[in-house]
Design goal:
It is a single chain. With about 425 residues, the chain is an alpha/beta fold. It contains 17 helices and nine strands. Strands 1-2-3-5-4-6-7-8-9 form a nine-stranded mixed beta sheet, sandwiched between helices.
């Protein structure tokens, strides 16, 4: 069902809302959710028989990109040759959005945890397949997975390769056997290296950030929403270090940290910015499911990032220069951050949960015939390049492009990233038709 059809410069857009089973392992139980999908096409080719490219966004908990004239840059590139499908993954955007009010529908945290268990990659693949078969004509389509979207793309290749004509992955070749502990053992050293590069680029920031941290540690500093700001929350700003403009984002923020010449009072601008950058009102699933996406078998995550952090004392909030952390979620966040407090009990239950259904099928991936082109960012802070190279060697018909030119968000920075991957597949005979 088309909800609306409209034009923005350079794009014809059709919005759809589709009903799918909540639990794909038991679709007959009557529980359903709505999945939102947006079709985008060059208006001059609105009726052309174009190949379809379904985008799988990163996250977890990230909604599909909202198009605007000329952007995102990869979308402008894709529209030259494809009809593009932008999906809000379940739990995000307009697809059964999960937020604090969602929990009120459940009798207890256990029921809520059971509900969120159904928002992992296997369910998302089933949603995409339903859209492909029932809404978009049933033919094979191409997929583009960015970051966590690449993890989902590997699940797609494992579960339903018959639906795929080609697969493009940017910064998202997951380790097929790596659990959360291995991921974070590899992640902390990469984040430490990013901190070192940051302080070498901006050597005066070491003393300034130390002053900021000392004030936060010794005073009751409140953010605009009432949360008390802790040093460990300040450290989570380092998530930006994995992005192309991340160093500059943090540097310019620290430049305006103080509102007085003696640098004793933190500015309103600084506090409002920290609140916005470290809150999760728009994507609580990013925090709740962060470690769940690495679940294997009966192994429970048990707050892996927190446990592994003990082996890296240089990340202590008391150390100076202060090291920022990255894409790690900690149990204290569900106590200190207003937007995450309602999820505290649910997150703790999920952290102790095992019995994960397999997300990848290594033998099937080894025998894969769908052409896959993957960009591996050598300096990727979020996805370990070593694990990605190991996976690339284990997936049939996959061509890897290893580059140090881009950070994790290379797809959003340059149209040439998608262009290179499309060309890689074309040179090998093109997508399966």
């Amino acid at each position: 069902m088309i909800l609306s059809e409209y034009m923005i410069p350079g794009m014809l857009i059709r919005d759809r809302l589709v009903t799918v089973p909540l639990d794909w392992s038991n679709p007959g139980d009557g529980r359903t959710i709505k999945i939102f999908a947006r079709e985008v096409v060059d208006p001059t080719r609105r009726d052309a028989d174009l190949p379809k490219l379904a985008y799988i966004q990163g996250g977890p908990g990230g909604k599909g990109p909202r198009p605007s004239p000329g952007g995102p840059v990869w979308l402008a590139q894709a529209l030259k040759t494809h009809r593009v499908i932008l999906v809000d993954q379940r739990g995000t955007g307009r697809s059964a959005r999960v937020e604090s009010a969602t929990l009120s529908a459940f009798a207890d945290a256990g029921q809520a945890a059971d509900y969120l268990w159904l928002f992992r990659a296997d369910s998302i693949v089933h949603d995409y397949e339903y859209l492909r078969e029932r809404v978009f004509g049933g033919g094979r389509w191409e997929i583009l997975g960015q970051s966590y979207g690449g993890f989902i793309a590997l699940s797609y290749l494992s579960m339903a390769p018959q639906g795929l004509a080609a697969c493009y992955i940017t910064g998202g070749l997951a380790g097929l056997d790596a659990d959360a502990d291995e991921v974070y053992r590899r992640t902390y050293p990469r984040v430490a290296a990013k901190n070192d590069r940051y302080y070498r680029r901006y050597p005066l920031d070491g003393s300034r950030i130390a002053r900021v941290a000392d004030i936060i540690a010794t005073q009751d500093i409140r953010l605009p929403d009432g949360d008390r700001l802790s040093v460990r929350r300040l450290q989570t700003l380092g998530n930006d270090f994995g992005l192309a403009r991340g160093f500059e984002n943090i540097h310019w923020l620290m430049e305006e940290a103080f509102s007085d010449e003696k640098e004793t009072r933190l500015s309103d601008h600084f506090l409002a910015s920290v609140m916005a950058l470290t809150s999760y009102d728009s994507n609580p699933l990013y925090a709740v499911l962060q470690e769940i996406i690495y679940g294997h078998g009966d192994h429970a995550g048990r707050w892996s990032a927190q446990r592994i952090r003990a082996s890296f004392p240089e990340f202590s909030p008391e150390r100076r220069p202060l090291l920022f952390t990255g894409e790690m979620m900690y149990p204290w966040m569900f106590e200190e951050i207003r937007s995450l407090r309602p999820f505290r009990e649910v997150a703790n239950l999920l952290a102790e949960r095992g019995g994960y259904p397999p997300l990848y099928d290594p033998p099937r991936l080894a025998a894969n015939e769908v052409p896959v082109a993957a960009a591996i960012y050598h300096d990727d802070m979020f996805v370990d390049a070593g694990l990605s190279l190991d996976t690339a060697a284990r997936v049939g018909n996959l061509q890897a492009w290893v580059t140090s030119e881009y950070q994790h968000d290379g797809l959003r920075q340059s149209a040439s990233v998608l262009g290179r991957l499309l060309e890689d597949v074309r040179e090998r005979g093109g997508p399966v038709r």
